[in-house]
Amino acid sequence: MGHSPYAWTTLGAVAQATERVELLTYVTCPIIRYHPAVVAQKAATLQILADGRFTLGLGSGENLNEHVVGEGWPSIDKRQDMFVEALEIIRALHAGGLVTYEGKHFRVDSARIWDLPEGGVPIGIAAGGEKAVARFTEYGDHLIATEPDADLVKAWSDNHEGPARSIGQIPISWDPDKDAAIDRAHDRFRWFAGGWAVNADLPTTAGFAGATKFVRKEDVADTIPCGPDLDAIVEAVKPYWEAGYTDIALVQVGDETQERFLAEAAGPLLEKLRAASS
């Protein structure tokens, strides 16, 4: 764990190497490492490079990522207050014109994004409960979540004006060798079993390792689809569309089989997913 590329550099490269695939930050925190004004400009630039394929996914952060700049790790209530201000700043800058903002946590002094994409930048907001949905819906276009919770999807829809997407995420560990797939998922992704309520506060990779030291390989295999069976992946996705999700992000664990997964499994998997959801 810990080996992750810088998302914005990677997305810029992917935008230039592709033409149709949608791009999304899942998710960026605009309150500690990044000032929201900087996030607003990055998102606008990427949307131009991607010809409108980008969605800015935002959340209130994880200690693992945010503590590195030495600003501490605020309480969840304070982070959510900061998140509201950040969303107000990003929305204002994406609306165009000169922006000056004086908040409790952030200031913006005569800022303007001169190059804005046509159609703007849609914003997805990570929300783990109905309280968060009620607070953040007015600032977002789409819901981002990691649990197939029908009540959460309904709460977003009820509070949101106009059409909205609900975007879920599940890890998968595809490999022709099922044992190798389980080993890799246990080594790289067993922290997924802890849930974000716990993971968000852990400051180091050692903390993640300690929090998951009792997670067994069989626990991971029960939680994450492992091996070559595409039907197992379809079954793992099924609760999300039953809960009302419109989109699902599949996270292939590790880099060892990425190219082979795309070459051999991605096409047939998409066919199975489309058939099962129709």
UniProtKB/TrEMBL annotation:
Keywords: Oxidoreductase. The keyword Oxidoreductase applies. InterPro entries: F420-G6PD/mer, F420_G6P_DH-rel, Luciferase-like_dom, Luciferase-like_sf. The keyword DNA damage does not apply. Gene3D superfamilies: Luciferase-like domain. Residues 4-246 form the Luciferase-like domain. One of its GO terms (molecular function) is oxidoreductase activity, acting on paired donors, with incorporation or reduction of molecular oxygen. PANTHER family: 5,10-METHYLENETETRAHYDROMETHANOPTERIN REDUCTASE, PTHR43244. This is Unannotated protein. It comes from freshwater metagenome.
